[in-house]
């Protein structure tokens, strides 16, 4: 299947958003080196029954132009300042967001709405993939691909320093509201990044961020060579998950969330399958939304990065040999560190050591949960997306991330549970599939096997 790009339209704000060229400062969360990446993801929409004046490309390009009046930083240019080489935004008249218009000669139904382990090479054609330098010039690039059935996908490539997933959803919701006929967005975007999330004077680090972050100038986590990687989805049924958490409760007397329990299981399975030497340090990394935890809380319309990275660290030997419930408990306890002081110390640590190569080092496994991010609200007039997929490989200093994802809302026979998208070195995937056995093979019906459970160290 070949995606044909017919043209690229440079979409500018519908009315000039400012009078003079200016610079916008980013927060120290925005300029975290782990966020110097392009985040790419895809939304899939059903048949639109398009007309000449009401096709998805026209509707989205018009809505984008209107939204950029308030979200004009997405059309600006990222560059490094001369003081400390942090990223900042240069805003000048005439800037725009590239919007690619593409078509493909197949139906979404024939691809099961991109829900069941879709072909990676095909998916890559649906989302722009600017190189690092191009993504500084154009930190936001979008693509509308219309399918033979009239359905379409909206692919996005956004530099992570501009926003996180929640901030991006605010922007796309603004576009969607305007597409549906609103004269003004319901949530006005707020910038003020350097003042709301800037360093203290003088900066001080009083939370234990240094336990997981080190200084290693010249080290780039996303340049690690681990060989070819595979992306594969695994099915997790509600029945299986409930039984698993019930057994963990019997062992520990603790109630664990899905993220804590399944995250601990998958982390161990990945490390074991990858045959990481026992003495090497490995880290479970995830981000936690701090918008309401900081004092004062961030405004509702704040669309910058409002999450901080949290870590659990063990040696590979400890992880493999520990009961899973003990690892799940470490993940649970790590959430208690998510305080205003932790955020402020994280920011101040970035301020003090930015030029010294802040890193979480090697052996990081990034985890994120997309099941409750509100993607379904991004409705351009034909209903919300039926499938949402991330395409990024780089996350939280990890090159082998793991995403918890909802099933497509129209996927036949999959109303129970959710899917886990695992990126892993190709050499380790067969062993990981075996480790994942108690939960079932990818997208196959499975009844949780008590015999499997008894053999596992839970």
In short:
The chain is of the alpha+beta class and 458 residues long.
Task: Give a structural overview.
The chain has 458 residues and is of the alpha+beta class. It is 26% helix and 23% strand. The protein has twelve helices and 17 strands. It has helices at 56-67, 120-124, 132-137, 165-179, 193-196, 238-252, 258-273, 316-321, 324-334, 340-353, 429-435, 450-455, and strands at 4-11, 22-25, 38-45, 77-80, 87-91, 97-104, 140-147, 152-159, 214-215, 229-236, 281-289, 307-315, 358-359, 364-369, 387-390, 402-405, 418-425. Strands 1-6-7-8-3-15 form a six-stranded mixed sheet. Strands 10-17-16-14-11-12 form a six-stranded mixed sheet. Strands 2-5-4 form a three-stranded antiparallel sheet. Strand 7 and strand 8 (152-159) form a beta hairpin. Helix 1 crosses helix 4 (165-179) and helix 7 (258-273) crosses helix 9. The longest helix is centred in the middle third of the chain and has 16 residues, at 258-273. The protein is globular and about 60 Å long.
Annotation field: number of helices:
12
Helix content: 25-40%
**Euclidean distance between termini CA atoms:** 44 Å
Percentage of β-strand residues: 15-25%
Low-confidence stretches: 441-455
* Mean pLDDT figure: 91
Shape from CA axes? globular
Class by SSE composition: alpha+beta
How does the major sheet shape up?
A: 6 strands, mixed
The strand line-up of the biggest sheet is 1-6-7-8-3-15
SSE order in H/E notation?
A: EEEHEEEHHEEHHEEHHEEHHHEEEEEHH
Rg for CA atoms: 22 Å
Number of strands: 17
The quaternary state of the protein chains shown equals single chain
């Amino acid at each position: 299947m070949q995606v044909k790009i017919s043209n690229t339209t440079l979409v500018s704000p519908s009315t000039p958003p400012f009078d003079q060229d200016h610079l916008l400062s980013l927060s120290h969360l925005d300029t975290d080196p782990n966020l110097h990446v392009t985040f790419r993801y895809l939304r899939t929409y059903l048949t639109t029954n398009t007309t000449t004046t009401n096709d998805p490309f026209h509707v989205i390009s018009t809505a984008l132009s209107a939204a950029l009046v308030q979200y004009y930083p997405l059309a600006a240019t990222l560059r490094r300042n001369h003081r400390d080489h942090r990223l900042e935004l240069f805003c000048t008249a005439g800037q725009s967001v590239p919007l690619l218009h593409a078509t493909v000669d197949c139906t979404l139904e024939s691809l099961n709405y991109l829900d069941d382990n879709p072909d990676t090479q095909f998916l890559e054609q649906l989302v722009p993939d600017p190189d690092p330098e191009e993504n500084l010039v154009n930190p936001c690039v979008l693509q509308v691909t219309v399918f033979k059935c009239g359905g379409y996908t909206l692919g996005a490539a956004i530099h992570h320093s501009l926003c996180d997933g929640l901030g991006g959803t605010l922007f796309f919701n603004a576009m969607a509201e305007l597409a549906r006929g609103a004269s003004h967005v319901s949530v006005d975007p707020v910038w003020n990044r350097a003042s709301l999330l800037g360093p203290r004077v003088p900066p001080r680090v009083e939370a234990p961020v240094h336990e997981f972050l080190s200084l290693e100038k010249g080290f780039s986590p996303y340049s690690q060579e681990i060989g070819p990687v595979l992306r594969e989805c695994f099915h997790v049924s509600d029945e299986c998950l409930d039984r698993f958490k019930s057994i963990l409760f019997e062992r520990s007397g603790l109630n664990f969330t899905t993220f804590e329990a399944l995250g601990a299981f998958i982390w161990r399975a990945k490390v074991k399958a990858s045959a990481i030497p026992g003495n090497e340090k490995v880290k479970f990394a995830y981000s936690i939304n701090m918008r309401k935890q900081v004092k004062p809380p961030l405004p509702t319309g704040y669309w910058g990065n409002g999450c901080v990275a949290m870590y659990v660290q063990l040696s590979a030997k400890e992880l493999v040999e520990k009961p899973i419930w003990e690892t799940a408990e470490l993940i649970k306890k790590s959430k208690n560190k998510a305080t205003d002081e932790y955020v402020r110390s994280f920011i101040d640590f970035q301020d003090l050591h930015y030029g010294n190569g802040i890193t979480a080092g090697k052996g990081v496994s990034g985890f994120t949960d997309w099941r409750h991010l509100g993607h379904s609200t991004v409705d351009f007039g034909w209903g919300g997306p039926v499938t949402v997929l991330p395409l990024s490989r780089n996350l939280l200093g990890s090159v082998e991330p793991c995403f918890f994802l909802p099933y497509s809302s129209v996927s036949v026979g999959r109303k129970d549970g959710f899917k886990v998208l695992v990126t892993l070195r190709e050499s380790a995937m067969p062993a990981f599939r075996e480790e994942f056995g108690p939960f079932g093979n990818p997208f196959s019906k499975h009844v949780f096997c008590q015999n499997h459970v008894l053999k596992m160290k839970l």
